[in-house]
Design goal:
globular, 292 residues, binds succinic acid, 20 strands, 25% helix, 8-stranded mixed beta sheet, alpha+beta, 3-stranded antiparallel beta sheet, Double-stranded beta-helix, 8 helices
Amino acid sequence: MRIEPSGKALGAKIEGIDLADPVSDADFKHMLRALGEHGVLCFPGQRVTTDDFVRFGRMFGELEINVANQFHEPGLPEVMVLSNMTADGKPIGLGDAGQGWHTDMSYSKDIALANVLYAVKVPARDGRPLGDTQFRNMHAAYEDLPAEIKARLEGRTATHDFAKFWDMMRARPGSRRAPLTREQRARKPPVSQPIFRIHPITGRRVLYCNPGYAMRIDGMPEAESAELLDFLFRHQEQPKCFHAHQWAEGDVLMWDNVGTVHNAVADYRADEPRYMRRLQVMATKDYARLAA
Ligand code: SIN
């Protein structure tokens, strides 16, 4: 297995490994370390069945079944389908997943370690792939915060709400998202998360506060909270934190959901098919020990 870092804000390519085969303990440890160090790992040219894909994801932690997930592979609710494709005029996947900067599962008491996507169909126009996934490095964002902001926010929490992103997507013209039901809302009530947290693999601090879900800083006057959140969200936008993944069919892409925020670029049309299988790996293991 060869790990080739991009040398940029995030990203490494991992070659010389077939994810259709079981992964050795030594390779698993290298992948986990690489996930902490590079944040976004691409395994290009893979041909994996849904069973292989699930086995790969499960090595890293339990797989989530999303509270609002209507689209998944048959019999496998943990393998979500993200797609703009239709069958008999009906959508076969969540078509607008992740189109806005966010961190998956920050709205949940139990947070996620990583997302894993398998690119089955990638839209392209004039020979250029479309539908990039973009990232920002939250280790770098934390390190680069002014000391005064670090001091003001030390030990603080922010409230994150699943409904914030959902309702923002629903408000977009043409959205097919139904309103969240009372039951879905009850299963994902707003939660407080530390604004700075220790990354479970690297042991370093990250900024854990994303525009998709963070609503307010707890215990702070509304205006001050809004001003600070605005500052944190703008701070993340610095080019030195940015990375974009341009997809190719067969890519398995794994990204760190504690140390990055991400955004799915919606630059393709309804007649330009995109189909991704997605796993959400929950942070259910002792990663510091496993990576040591
Ligand atoms: C997501 O936010 O999980 C989806 C990312 C993508 O489809 O590019």
